[in-house]
Structures are given as structure tokens and as C-alpha cells.
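Propose amino acids for all 402 sites.
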């Protein structure tokens, strides 16, 4: 969010056009995409605790270096490295939850991770805009880098990969966490060839592509969109942006609670996960369309906030689905899914200003709505009621790729 709310002053200081700024953001997402599968293998070998620590430390370092950048070339290199460094974060978090929570709580557990991810964008702009006005945009990156380094230390001190390894977890708690779990540790190399032949493996990837397209648009372009399309003064951008992300912070928590409640009530995994995600994306699509039917800034922001909140349903439940169909290879399925999400994230930052320049920002919103429908279809095609073949045990005849 420091990068997003700094867009206008940064572009002015570095003489960067909106398309160049979008391309720099695309470089971040390309780095993120390329590092997904290697990041998953790092998690398999080092465990989520150490993989997350590496990612958080790299994240913090690159945040600080963003504030040092003096040219668009340096900025692009730093942001690419940022994407590579950050890549294992969500997959490591998902693997961590698979180890620490029973299956019936995966929805809420992943919702908490996503709520934390969106609480930052909800609070960050409100605090960062006045900070940038007083101390400049570079100082905002130094501040965030310091907070990231502190988070890395806290993570290493407080977290262990499995409950059995934590001195504050007793045997009764371990039994509670592992009760009813049929997942064993990954039996060996990931059976990529078996996974690639299955519809659900592709469908969850495309579902996340359609979901993250909209979410990433909001993350990277909402503050600038508010200024250029809705004529919101820079001093008010933080408040409006914060409202939108407060909406998704709440929505991901609601999605997790509702989904887990449906599962406990006897609904199938497909009904509890996929159909709830589909309902959220349908709301997102409607909110995007309705935001273009008014010229009132407040009303438009309300509809945009509803759209972002709806996308949050798909964003958080996709991770629960990855856990349930991936089983012992949750880290691999999560990496695959997240990689495709960041294919979308790599396209949006550059494509959005190009469409806006040739047509209008309203056209950008329309494209977002269409891609959301694509995500809905993909969620409907994902069979969450059964694990992927090869996810629990790997037959000797399956060709594998490490």
C-alpha cells in the first residue's frame, strides 16, 4: 500500500508515466509468479517457518530499497526482486494452517490470514497519506521496512512448523488438531504429471486468476483511480481506500465463518467452499458494474467497496480449497494456484492504464467484471469433494518432477 498510495508523488519525482508505473508493478508480479514453484519446494524442504522468515526478511529489505530508488530502471529491478522474495508468503501460511488446524477450521484459519493481509491496506492508507504529506514518500518505505524486520523476528521467536514441536502445546491439543485428519507428510516428489491431467488442478488455478485480477486492481490502482477518475483530492484518498479494504477485511472473515459453519452443518465441501466463493464473486461483479452507474463519489466508493468485499470470498476460500484437494501436497497446489493468480496480477497493472488511456477507466472496470465471471465459472468446475489423484500417496508408476 505504500507503493500504491505513493503513486502520484513517486511518478512526479521520478518522471514516470502511469504505463511505466504499471509496468514496474508488473515486474514485481512476474518475479512473484516465477518464484512460486521454487518457493513451494523451499517450503517442502525448509518448512513453513523458515521459508516465511526468508520471505519476510526479503520483503522488508526490498521495501527499504524501494525508497532508495532514483530511476525507473532501479525501481523496476527492486520491485522484481521484491516479487521473488515475497513469493513464498501465502503458500507458507497455507501450509502452516494445514499443519496447525483441523480440516473443519481451514476456512476460518485462512480467513484470518487474508484478513490480516487486507487489514494492512485498510489501515495503511489512512496512516500513510498524512505521513507521506509530512515526511515524503521515501520515508514511508523506510518505516514499512522497519516494521517488516520486526515482524520477522516476532515470527521466528513465536512460531514452530507443527504443534508437536511447540513447547506450549500439550498432547490433548495435538490430538484435537489432528483428529479426523487423513493427511500424511508429503511422501516424496510432487506428482506434477498426475496433477496436470486433472480438471480441478487447472480449474482452481483459473478461479484464483479471475479472483486476484480484481483484488490486485484495487491494491495497485484504487488510490490513483480515485484521483484521476473520480477527482478525489490526495488528502482524502487514504480514507476512501481504507474504507474499501476495511470491507474486504470483514468479508474474508465472514466467508471463513460461513463456509466452516456450512461444513459443520453437513454440507459438502463443494457447497461450503465453492458455492460461497461463487456467491462472493457474483456480488463483486455486480458491485463493479453498479459503481459505473453513478457520478457521486461516495456512492461509487460504496459499490467499489462491496465489489472488493465480494472478491474477498473467492480469495480466501480458494486457499481452503487448495488445502482440501492438495492434502499432503498442499504446498504444491497452493504454489500452482498462487502462480496463476499472479499471472493475472502481472497483467492488470500494465493493462489497466493502457485501457484507460485508449478508452476510459470505466472500460477498465468493465474488463474487471468480465474476468470475475471467468473466475465464477472456474470455481464451479473445481471438484472440492475429492482430493487430487496422487495427493495422498504417489504411485510408483507416476512420472514426477521435483
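Proposal:
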Amino acid at each position: 500500500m505504500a507503493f500504491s498510495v505513493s503513486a502520484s508523488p513517486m511518478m512526479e519525482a521520478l518522471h514516470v508515466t502511469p504505463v511505466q508505473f504499471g509496468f514496474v508493478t508488473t515486474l514485481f508480479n512476474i518475479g512473484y509468479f516465477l518464484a512460486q514453484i521454487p518457493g513451494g519446494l523451499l517450503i517442502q524442504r525448509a518448512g513453513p517457518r523458515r521459508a516465511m522468515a526468508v520471505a519476510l526478511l526479503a520483503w522488508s529489505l526490498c521495501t527499504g530499497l524501494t525508497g532508495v530508488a532514483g530511476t525507473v530502471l532501479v525501481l523496476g529491478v527492486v520491485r522484481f526482486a521484491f516479487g521473488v522474495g515475497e513469493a513464498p508468503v501465502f503458500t507458507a501460511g497455507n501450509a502452516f494452517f494445514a499443519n496447525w488446524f483441523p480440516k473443519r477450521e481451514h476456512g476460518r484459519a485462512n480467513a484470518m490470514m487474508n484478513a490480516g493481509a487486507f487489514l494492512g491496506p485498510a489501515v495503511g492508507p489512512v496512516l500513510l497519506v498524512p505521513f507521506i504529506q509530512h515526511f515524503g514518500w521515501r520515508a514511508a518505505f523506510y518505516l514499512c521496512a522497519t516494521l517488516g524486520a520486526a515482524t520477522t523476528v516476532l515470527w521466528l521467536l513465536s512460531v514452530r512448523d507443527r504443534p508437536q514441536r511447540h513447547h506450549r502445546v500439550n498432547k490433548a491439543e495435538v490430538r484435537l488438531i489432528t483428529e479426523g485428519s487423513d493427511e500424511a507428510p508429503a511422501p516424496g516428489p510432487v506428482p506434477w504429471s498426475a496433477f496436470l491431467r486433472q480438471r480441478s488442478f487447472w480449474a482452481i488455478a483459473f478461479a484464483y486468476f479471475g479472483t486476484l485480477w480484481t483484488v490486485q486492481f484495487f491494491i495497485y490502482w484504487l488510490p490513483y483511480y480515485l484521483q484521476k477518475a473520480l477527482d478525489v483530492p490526495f488528502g482524502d484518498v487514504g480514507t476512501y481506500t481504507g474504507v474499501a479494504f476495511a470491507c474486504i477485511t470483514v468479508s474474508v472473515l465472514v466467508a471463513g465463518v460461513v463456509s466452516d459453519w456450512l461444513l459443520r452443518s453437513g454440507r459438502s465441501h463443494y457447497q461450503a467452499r465453492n458455492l460461497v466463493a461463487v456467491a462472493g464473486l457474483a456480488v463483486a461483479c455486480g458491485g463493479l458494474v453498479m459503481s459505473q452507474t453513478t457520478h457521486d463519489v461516495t456512492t461509487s466508493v460504496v459499490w467499489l467497496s462491496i465489489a472488493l468485499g465480494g472478491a474477498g470470498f473467492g480469495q480466501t476460500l480458494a486457499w481452503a480449497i487448495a488445502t482440501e484437494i492438495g492434502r499432503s501436497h498442499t504446498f504444491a497446489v497452493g504454489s500452482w494456484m498462487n502462480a496463476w493468480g499472479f499471472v493475472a496480477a502481472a497483467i492488470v497493472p500494465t493493462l489497466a492504464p493502457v485501457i484507460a488511456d485508449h478508452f476510459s477507466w470505466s472500460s477498465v472496470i468493465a474488463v474487471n467484471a468480465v474476468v470475475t465471471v471467468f473466475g465464477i465459472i472456474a470455481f464451479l468446475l473445481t471438484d472440492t469433494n475429492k482430493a487430487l489423484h496422487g495427493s495422498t500417496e504417489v504411485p510408483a508408476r507416476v512420472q514426477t518432477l521435483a
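Residues 2-180+198-380 form a domain with the Growth Hormone; Chain: A; fold (CATH 1.20.1250.20). The chain has one domain: 2-180+198-380.
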